[in-house]
Amino acid sequence: MRQALAEARTAFDAGEVPVGAVVLAPSGEVIGTGHNDRERTADPTGHAEIVAMREAASALGAWRLSGCTLVVTLEPCTMCAGAAVQARVGRLAYGAVDLKGGAVGSLWDVVRDRRLNHRPEVIAGVLADECAALLTEFFARRRVR
After folding, report:
1. Catalytic annotation, residues
2. 118 annotated to bind ligand
3. How many other C-beta atoms can be found within 10 angstroms of the C-beta atom of residue 113?
4. Most-buried pick from 69, 89, 123, 143 (CB within 10 A)?
5. If we measure between CA atoms, which residue out of 127, 124, 97 comes closest to residue 1?
6. What span, in angstroms and rounded, lies between the C-alpha atoms of 99 and 145?
7. Among positive and negative, which fits the CA dihedral 112, 127, 57, 13?
8. pTM recorded for the entire structure
9. Strands, DSSP E only, in the chain?
10. Is 35 within any annotated ligand binding site?
11. What is the pLDDT of residues 28-77, one digit of tens each?
């Protein structure tokens, strides 16, 4: 999660919503990193999780991320939770809860929907206070402007 937080700080410094993600191979090696970059790229799919999963898939040479762990500083939205399911991510660990858009238990629970073909293990609340603090600071600064 510390490396995901470093990615989130990169997003913060670039004026992006500070969310960061990493993908770990089954061995524990980091094979993908990402942070929000929607503003820079004008890409609505430029969420940290998507960026990190794309990099991981490229590193593996395969779209299936079976046995991999996706670590993200904020509870994934419906798009990112769905992408994690589609990529067959083995484990999903996240920090701060997203009560307004979270799809891993808060508002929806995409990853545990028994109608889908894959359900990753979920670990919630990893360094949650630190992850939330970065988001709170970002949005407080934006309101001041």
Report:
1. 49
2. no
3. 14
4. 89
5. 127
6. 25
7. positive
8. 0.96
9. 20-24, 30-35, 69-74, 91-96, 121-123
10. no
11. 999 999 999 999 999 999 999 999 999 999 999 999 999 999 999 999 99
